[in-house]
User: What shape does this take?
Amino acid sequence: MKQTELQEILKQKGLKTTNQRVLVFKALESCPGKHFTAEELYDVIKVDYPEIGLATVYRTIQLFLELNLIDKINLDDGFVRYEIVDNNNLKHHHHHFICVECGKVYSFEEDLLEDFEAHVEKAFGFKILNHEVKLYGLCKVCLQKNWI
Amino acid sequence: MKQTELQEILKQKGLKTTNQRVLVFKALESCPGKHFTAEELYDVIKVDYPEIGLATVYRTIQLFLELNLIDKINLDDGFVRYEIVDNNNLKHHHHHFICVECGKVYSFEEDLLEDFEAHVEKAFGFKILNHEVKLYGLCKVCLQKNWI
DNA sequence: GTTTATGCAAATATTTTGCAACGTT
DNA sequence: AACGTTGCAAAATATTTGCATAAAC
Assistant: This one.
């Protein structure tokens, strides 16, 4: 997504295109797949724009969540994290695998969850709109380490 | 699980069976499937044991998590919640469906996730030990309301 | 010029921690 | 008696909010 598209989205809602909003967006976009905390975004942006306030970062995150520009992720480490939504894959948010040994987080796509969701919708009469799937376990690297 | 079993588990680890630990356990056990916040547990226990401190509740929750007596659940409402682990179904933690309209949380079992996990293990070389699945959408009741 | 957004500081809310007193083994 | 545990209060952490100023339209 280009900066002009962000401008367009904001204009449609009667919102203003500020330096701060553009910078938060650029920071998130520069590292797709990275799970930023609010503080991390703040630190990144402060380098080029030291006058930004942490409260603005929080407010911008809130706004971007409402505009569905970013996803919220909770990895149970005491921080809520955010990553930019992948426009090429709007239908399905990806899943996260968290290694309990090294703490590394792996993101991946896996369509088999659709069967699961279809079954749940049928069995319980729900309409599923979104999901958050976290798998915990040992990653390939840590499994191999344990073999030694 | 009986109180004597809790006592046994604690003794094995060289930990003491205190009134506070028994009361937190009983509170959790009295409502299986209920998602307690720390504060809710505190309030429940205070009725019969007003001298308990909130810090003790937090410390007991931490302990029970380490002993795998309870599960941690985050429903994105600003509170971390806990529920007692179902001993009759140790293999599989259940899943949660959260209605975005009424906010109600439905817990359910669904084995189809095993296929999903088996596939992920094979495809990425992970060893999956646990999972947390949250589905967001409209529940049966709210779907019907919207038909009117 | 009007309205929205920002930065700062203070407030909120949740959870953790230090420590003296206490309870369990 | 020894050691783990508790309650309290204070600290730490994360996030939100009020308000005067500033920037965008």
Chain B has a mean pLDDT of 90. The CA atoms of residues 20 and 52 of chain B lie 7 Å apart. The interface with chain A takes residues 72, 74, 76, 95, 97, 99-100, 106, 108, 110, 112-113, 115-117, 119-120, 123-140, 143 of chain B (CB under 8 Å).
